Amino acid sequence: METSNHTTVVNFILLGISVHSADKPFIFVLLLTMFLVSLMGNSLMIALIFIDHHLHTPMYFFLSNLSLVDLCYTSVTVPVMLINLLSEKKIISFPECITQLYFFISLGLTEMFLLTVMAYDRYVAICNPMHYTLVMSRRVCSCLVAGCWGIASLNSIRHTIFISRLSFCGPNTIHFFFCDLPPLLGLTCSEISTYEFVLFIEASVIGLVPFLCIIISYIRIIASILKVHSAEGRRKAFYTCSSHLTVLLLYGGSTIINYFYPSSAYSLEKDVVITIMCTVVTPMLNPLIYSLRNKEVTGALRRLIARRKCFQNI
Length: 314
Fold this sequence. Notes:
314 residues; mainly alpha; Rhopdopsin 7-helix transmembrane proteins; globular
């Protein structure tokens, strides 16, 4: 396998989103609006959880990290996409491309791992409530979150180092709106058949293990909820995990569609739409789902507003 540091390509051209010139202003405003809503929503969620001591629990600790991931995740791709919509020269340098690839892989994996950990947290809260504070101690939660960030980062470093050592002899046109693994591998003139096989196995394992953990957690959660005799008790038990389940279905659904729809039905336009769902729409909706469906978060927001009014009246 060729792993030379030499590359003849120093810049890539991102084709971005293929739209008519007349539609570009509308697409730009739409994406910019979603991007700003995502930034404000996730920033507000992080601030609320940090400020309000009522939210200093394992579930909200994980949620604050999920909001941080979403905040960074959407910032990796959307600004470049917005610039390219208005620019004629859609150029990204090789180091910038590799950097974007690193953050995209790392943050995507971190989000998947965090959603898995949050499913385990809900399992312990519902199926083993008497030992919840002991099982999900601050030290355990910190280790779980550090593991999510650390494993994802190490995995991403490994891939980006490999990509950076490949030879790119031309062409240098990326038929996408950011630097991702598949389009970059399609441009290299190095031998990568072994790497592609290893990547397929690794992606299958990394995708399957969290998926099975989430499925097992929710099977046991549902079984535990069904054992509750009162309808009110079942409703409260389901309510504690409804927001996470909604986010999980939203993120997991778009990911599954992105990677598992038949290759015969593939189109660049469809791939772009689904990827925008993962990188723009989902990060925007996550804080809305947790705030609108969660009385503790809305209560914290009301207390913050009341505190601000109190300071203004002093």
